[in-house]
Specification:
With 155 residues, this protein is an all-alpha fold. It has one domain: Orthogonal Bundle (Arc Repressor Mutant, subunit A), CATH 1.10.10. Helix content is 54%, strand content 0%. It is built from 6 helices and no strands. Keywords: DNA-binding, Homeobox, Nucleus, Transcription, Transcription regulation.
C-alpha cells in the first residue's frame, strides 16, 4: 500500500524531501532504514521516468523530429499512457495537469540535449534534473489521511 501511495505521489513531486515524506506517511514509525527505503523508491521512480524521456527523445530524433516544439505530451500520448500504466496502474487518481507539463518539459530537454550531442559529455543529465526538480508541486492533503485510498474519489 505504501508503494502504491508513493507512486501516486510521484505525479506531484519527483524530488520529495525526507521530511515531506514523513508528513505524508503518518502511519509509519520512521527510522533510518525505512526512511532510506522511501527515498530510494522515489529515486527508482525518477530513474524509470528519465529512462523513458531519453528513450522517447531518441526515438523522436530517429523519426525525423526537427524541433522540440513538435513534441507535445497529452493524455492520449503513448509516452503518457506508458507512464500512467507504471505509476497509476488502476487509474486511481486523475493525473494532475502539472505532471503532463513536467513530462513534456523533460522530453523536450532530453531531445534538445541529445540533438546537440550533449549526451557525449559526462553528467549531461544533471541540468535536466535541475529543471524538472523545480516543477514539483505541493502534495494534496488527502495523501496525509490514514484512509487516503477511500478519499481518492472525493478529490
Amino acid at each position: 500500500m505504501h508503494l502504491r501511495k508513493a507512486k501516486l505521489m510521484f505525479f506531484y513531486t519527483r524530488y520529495p524531501s525526507s521530511s515531506i515524506l514523513k508528513m505524508y506517511f503518518p502511519d509509519v514509525m520512521f527510522n533510518k532504514n525505512n526512511t532510506a527505503q522511501l527515498v530510494k523508491w522515489f529515486s527508482n521512480f525518477r530513474e524509470f521516468f528519465y529512462i523513458q524521456m531519453e528513450k522517447y527523445a531518441r526515438q523522436a530524433l530517429a523519426e525525423g523530429v526537427k524541433g522540440e516544439e513538435e513534441l507535445v505530451v497529452t493524455v492520449d500520448s503513448e509516452l503518457f499512457r506508458h507512464l500512467n500504466l507504471h505509476y497509476n496502474r488502476n487509474n486511481q487518481i486523475e493525473v494532475p495537469q502539472n505532471f503532463l507539463v513536467a513530462t513534456q518539459a523533460a522530453l523536450r530537454e532530453f531531445f534538445k540535449s541529445v540533438q546537440a550531442s550533449k549526451d557525449s559529455e559526462p553528467s549531461w543529465k544533471k541540468a535536466i534534473y535541475k529543471i524538472i526538480a523545480r516543477m514539483d508541486e505541493s502534495l494534496p492533503d488527502f495523501f496525509k489521511a490514514p484512509n487516503w485510498m477511500e478519499q481518492l474519489g472525493d478529490q
